[in-house]
Write a structure and sequence with these properties.
single chain; 281 residues; alpha+beta; D-amino Acid Aminotransferase, Chain A, domain 1; D-amino Acid Aminotransferase, Chain A, domain 2; 2 domains; six-stranded antiparallel β-sheet; 18 strands; 28% helix
Length: 281
């Protein structure tokens, strides 16, 4: 399901017609970013996304020249300026050293959400030999993104799962991965992945609901020992995996279905609080 119908984007304090956006202007230099899902006009888990943005900047000594409050204001202003209350927002800071130029962009992006039936049937995935240079930083890696997108397209899969030189799975190219064994959920360690906001929420929901969730290294050779698997991410939320290569999983696993329900309820709770005015600028 594709979402995108927007009129304006925010660039350095100015509103520009979205048709004038040119991504090639930011193809060189350093870019750190966040993608935030908007449902019914509410930017989901905005605080967590901005905290992670600040962490990314701190880890690479990147200067964020806008305050937390100014970034938050730009997000809400973008939503007010456009007529699409259900899509994804990308905000990014871009710096090019040789020309000493810096840009802050906040814009709605073309977004693909999984169809409803995939939450029942699950999605196909495959392994992909690649590692992020600094996985804890949400920083543009155009080479990895291009290679992953190519593998996804030619193999007709929803996502590729990165594996390191030790033959351990780490994360999806745009998601995090969890596996289920009995009543236990496992996911690769935080230090080896880009710890997504949805991933953090799922781990917290497990703790609150007394579901055992363990962060540990998972070897490729262990995958067949698991009963179920799922991706987490801003767009897919909690999405069942039907297969990883030739290994099949149960997308109808009871614990997985429970997590999908818990996460959807968390979204509804957040939106309700935001609309009641408890989350203010």
């Amino acid at each position: 399901m594709l979402q995108s119908e927007n009129e304006y984007f925010y660039l350095n304090g100015n509103w520009i017609p979205d048709n004038d956006y040119a991504s090639n202007l930011f193809s060189e230099g350093i870019t750190i970013y966040e993608v935030i899902r908007v449902i019914d006009g509410i930017p989901l888990f905005l605080e967590e996304h901005l905290n992670r943005l600040e962490l990314s900047a701190r880890l690479i000594n990147f200067n964020l020249w806008l305050s937390y409050k100014e970034i938050k204001q730009a997000v809400y202003s973008l939503i007010d300026k456009n007529s699409n209350p259900n899509s994804n927002i990308q905000l990014f800071f871009h710096y090019k050293a040789d020309s000493n130029t810096q840009n802050f962009v906040c814009r709605f992006i073309q977004t693909h959400y999984p169809e409803k039936n995939t939450y029942i049937s699950g999605v196909k995935s495959m392994l992909f030999a690649a590692e992020r240079k600094n996985p804890r930083v949400k920083k543009t890696d155009r080479s990895l993104r291009s290679k992953a997108d190519h593998a996804i397209a030619i193999n007709d899969v929803y996502e590729v799962i990165l594996i390191n030189q030790k033959k351990q799975i780490t994360e999806g190219s745009r998601s995090n991965i969890f596996l289920i064994q009995g009543k236990t959920i496992l996911t690769p360690p935080k230090k080896k992945v880009l710890a997504g906001v949805t991933r953090q929420k799922v781990i917290l929901l497990c703790k609150e609901n007394k579901i055992e969730c363990i962060e540990q290294e998972i070897r490729v050779s262990q995958l067949s020992n698991f009963e179920a698997a799922f991706f987490t991410g801003t767009s897919p939320k909690v999405l069942p995996v039907k297969s990883i290569g030739q290994i099949n999983f149960d997308p109808g696993n009871d614990l997985l279905k429970r997590l999908i329900k818990l996460y959807d309820e968390e979204i509804k709770r957040y939106i309700k609080l935001a609309k009641s005015g408890l989350k203010m600028l």
